[in-house]
Every structure is written in structure tokens, then in C-alpha cells.
Amino acid sequence: MSEKPVTGERRVFMTGNEVCAWAALAAEADIMYGYPITPQTDIMQYWTRLAPKFGRKFLQTEDEISAGFTTIGGVLAGKRAFSATTGPGNVLFQEPMSMAEMMRIPTVVIIPQRGGPSTATVIYSQQEVTMTAFGGNGEGFRIVYSTAGHQDLYDYTIKAFNTAWKYRFPTFVLGDGYQAKMREPLTIYDPAQRGIQMVKTEPLVGLEGTPGRDRPTQYLRNTYNTEEELYEVVMEIARDFEKAAPEIVEWQDFDTDKEMDVLILAHGVVSRSAQGALPLLREQGIRAGHFRPITLRPMPEEQMRRAAAKAKRILVVESAYGQLLKLVQQSLYGLAKPIDTLLRPGAGVTAEEIADQVKEGR
Amino acid sequence: MRVVEAFIGEYASGKSENAINRSLELLELGHQVTLADLDTVEPFYTLRPLKKSLEAAGLKVIAWSPEQTMGLGEAGTLLNQEMIWALKNQGSIVLDVGYGVHGAKIFNLIEGAETDPDLKVFAVVSAARPMTATKEDIVGYIRELGRVDGLINNTHLGSETTRKTIEEGAVIVTAAARELGLPVVYTAVLKELAPDFPNRDKMGNPVKFIRRFMPQAFW
To answer: Residues A122-146: pLDDT tens digits?
Structure first.
């Protein structure tokens, strides 16, 4: 009944959404809460087919507000709980996720981004960067991993649970509709066999003993009556977030060890096109490098600045109209480098298009 | 002779690849061929982008075209008249059916599916998909599908597929087929591996060499 869903390691071939369901199983997730929305629905469908075989649970809620709040409820009860949503569903998730930020509740949510604004397309975009990293009526004390394919979806879904529970911030795996639906090979593995210990979960409510006598009082608050009170709490969360950030940030760089004519900045699946553009540019005698932030929140600012300092120009490429760009501008503030852009809201970007843009920008 | 074959299977099993390859094979044998895309579960991630090139090759293709679905989003009516009447076409017919348990249910909506004397339903199985990686899992999965007349071993890792991948799949899929009392209709092998592969797999099943089309199905 509750045997391990993944033992050892093996090479497999499936869709990205299915990968997420397997990763959550391998990460010992106890329960998924969710409401269907394309292109996320298969995560739920695969989870509901697989979960009963391994003694795991699922609850379908009446909408995404409920899915977010029930995920919080599951975590409060000490369960490794998660959800998945996208687009308009992600909009509705912002209220519960703001609460999770304030109460330091380690929720995990997988977001295969779809097009916007409004309900828009069901297919693909990178337009949920701002919302996932900074949505809600708060400060964006969240952790966002931007994946670039199936291996990432597997690795970072597992990691998201540990990051969330270790640092107690809501954690997101930010994919997109292409990754959700495309098929490619990856290696699935039992985390324990790779030395990855799952961080122990624990209930945050209903603890043993009398508060104030047997144990310290557990203050789980989301409402503050005075500005001063709220200010103190938010500043404490901010300090914790900033302290943890250097341990959390992740990035990849390609050909950034030398002086560059151009540094291409891209995240998620677009990073694969950027990686593909490098040999095309090299053939033409253009010295190009690529920097990929894996965490979009917190952003690997220092590492990005170090790479950017070696380039004559920067090119920001994304399937959105400037959401990564804003984060880059903020990270590189003060560094006198011209920034070119290739912004394609809701549309894919190929390696050739990136190479062409670099040539035009020179 | 009229050939009517339905290919059913999970996402990433290779259902559409096998349906396309079979259609083109029949065309080469001189059949008049209709290929119908009946994926109602996710109609936006299917044969649609390939429609024009397959039609140019000589197939009649029943599938939504991007112009027809403009504005439908995820709430449109997704079964058109041509799909309901797909089995009434002249000549041979290949049906590419949506995935999983719900996908197979579409036969309820296809006129004549219950009574068509020539219809064969083949389940495309990849043992490189963790949900159908063991004999027991395949047997359980096929039993949920309803009518199945044969299995196709399409165990693969995309462009990483090797002879070993396919042969390991052949062992598992054949064991499942035996338990189910069904034939393994064939083992699918990428054309690129043809020089390395005999005409039968190690379990004695016939081998069919296929080309990959779906990497071009990037909408």
C-alpha cells in the first residue's frame, strides 16, 4: 500500500505534468488540494490515479481560493501538502498565499504558466513571473524556482518541499504550458538514495501541552490591529528572508567566464533557446554568454551582476512583456550596461530568433 | 481490403506517431486513407499542427484546424460532425484517440463503432512510462480501457531510444499481452535504428519501423 513510488533511478519518458505528480510522490507529499485548470489539470489527474496506490490523498475544492486555503490547512495540520494552478487560478491563489507569507506557512504550489492578461490562452507564457514572485498584498516573501524542462520539474518539485519546510516560506515551482505538455526523457529517482533527506514536517496547530506553561505560545496570526505591530512582524520576516536568500539562490551560467559582446538573460524554458543561440553566435564570431536565474525570488543578484560586468551589452529574452526585465533592471542597477530586449508575451522564442536579435542589436 | 484501426494510449506512449505512420503505410499500399484525430481530452495539443503536411502527403485528415478553434479557449465544443461520422468514410480509416480511460470512451460518440466489422482497437504501450512500466501495471491499465484487440510495444525514450530500450519494453509488454490473452501486434522501432534491428524483437513479435512526426507538432 505505502511502498515507495520510485526506487533506485531510471530513465523515463512522459509529459511534464506527469513528472510533477511523480516528483510529489517521491518527495513524500501527503496530500494535494486542487481545482482543475488547463494546462495544470493533468497534474491533478495523474496524482489522483497514483495517490491511492501509495496511501496519499487528494481533495478537489470548489475553486482556487479554497484550493489555496485548504493547502494551508493541510500544512497547519503537519502534512506535506501542495497544489497546482495557473493563470486566473494563480490570481485567486494570491489571497491564501499572502496569508501563507505572513504566517510563514510552507505551502508548495506548481504553476505551469498560461497566457494573459485576463483568462486568455490555455497554452503557454512566462507572464506569471510578477504574480508568482510578488503577488498578493504583501512584499513577496516567497521562493520561486523557474524550471527549464522535465529534469528540473522533477528535481525542483522535490526540492520545493524541503525549501518550504526548512525556511518556512511559500514555495513555487514555476513551469509553463510547454513544459507541462511536452514529452522528453528524464531520470526519476528516490531522493533518499541520492542523499536527499526530506525535511520533517510538523503540525503548527493542536500542539501538545498548555501554551505558556508546557510550551511557548504558538502565535499564528494573519491580522494585525496597529501599524506598529504589523511593521514589526513584516520587518522580522524581511530580515529572515534576506538572511536566507544567499543560501536559496540558484543559477546557471554558460560561457560567462570571459569578456562577452553580449550576455543573454533568460529563465525557464526560454533559457534552452538561449543556450541554443550560443553556438549559432559563436559561428559568427560573436562572443555571447548566457545567465539563467533558476530562483526568480530571491534573485541571484550578485552572480548576475558578476556575469553582466564582463559583457558589453545585455539582452533580456522572455515570453512576457518585461516581467523578467524589471527584475534584471533592479538587480543590475548602477551597472552602466545597455540593455536590449526580445519580449514576446505569450509566445515561444527559438534559438535562431535570439541569435538574430543579438545581431540586430550590435 | 478495408482497414479500420483505432490507436489508444496514454500521453507520451506514442499513440499519434503510430497512427500517422500506419496511415502513411496504408497510403503506400494503395489504400484511400482517412486519419481522424479524436483527442477530445486536450484537443489543443494534438495532430492539428501537422494537418496540412499530412494532407499534402495524400491523407484525408479529420482534425480541428487552428482557424476553426479561434476563440474557443478551453470551453469550446470539441467534437465536430466529421468526427462523429469518421467511420463512414470511403476506404481505410485510422483513428487517433485521446488518452487514457476517458479517451477510449469516445467510441460511444462515434457512429458505427459498436458494429463496424473491420474495427480493431490497439493500445499503444510504452514501458518507459512509469505508469505502465511493469507487467502488472500494464494489465491493470488495459483492463480499464474497455475493448482492446491488441497491444503495440512502443517503449521509447524519444531521441534517446536504443535497441535495449525497445527490447526491454518488448519483454514487459509481451508478458502483459500473454496475461491478457492479446497479441502484440508489433514492436515499433525508430527508422534510425533499423540497421541495428532484426525483423522480429527478442520476444518474436513483428517489428515495424516508424518515423517521428510529433516533434514537428509544436503548435
So the answer is: 889 999 999 999 999 999 999 999 9
Report which secondary-structure segment, H or E, holds B36.
Answer: strand B33-38
In whole angstroms, what is the distance from residue A26 CA to residue A49 CA? 15
CB count in 10 Å sphere of residue A2: 9
Cross-chain residue pair B131–A49, CB shorter than 8 Å = yes
**pTM given for the model:** 0.94
Q: What is the ipTM of this complex?
A: 0.90
Between CA B174 and CA B176 the distance in angstroms is 5
Minimal Cα–Cα distance from A181 to chain B, Å?
8
- Predicted confidence (pLDDT) per residue in B107-153, tens digit: 888 899 989 999 999 999 999 999 999 999 999 999 988 889 999 99
Query: The C-alpha cell of B19 is what?
Result: 497512427
Q: Got the DSSP string for A151-207?
A: HHHHHHHHHHHHHHHHHTS-EEEEEEHHHHH-EEEEEEE-GGGGT-PPPPP--SSS-
What the block records as the C-alpha cell of A310 is: 564582463
CB pairs under 8 A between A and B: 56
Residue B82 and residue B43: Cα distance in Å, rounded?
15
Q: In this structure, what C-alpha cell is assigned to residue A244?
A: 536566507
B interface test, pick of A4, A13, A124, A269 with most B CB neighbours within 10 Å: A13
The proportion of chain A whose per-residue pLDDT surpasses 90, expressed as a percent, equals: 93
Q: Which of A12, A46, A50 sits opposite B128 (nearest CB)?
A: A12
pLDDT < 70: residue spans in chain A: 1-2, 362
CB B14 within 8 A of CB B188: yes
Contact A42 B12 (CB under 8 A): no
Is residue B15 less than 8 Å (CB to CB) from chain A?
no
Interface test with B, best of A3, A47, A183, A190 (most B CBs within 10 A): A183
pLDDT surpassing 80 at residue B79: no
Task: List, as one string, the DSSP characters of A318-348.
Answer: ESSSSHHHHHHHHHTTT----EEEEE-TTS-
Q: What is the DSSP secondary-structure string of A52-90?
A: GGGT-EEEE-SSHHHHHHHHHHHHHTT--EEEE--HHHH
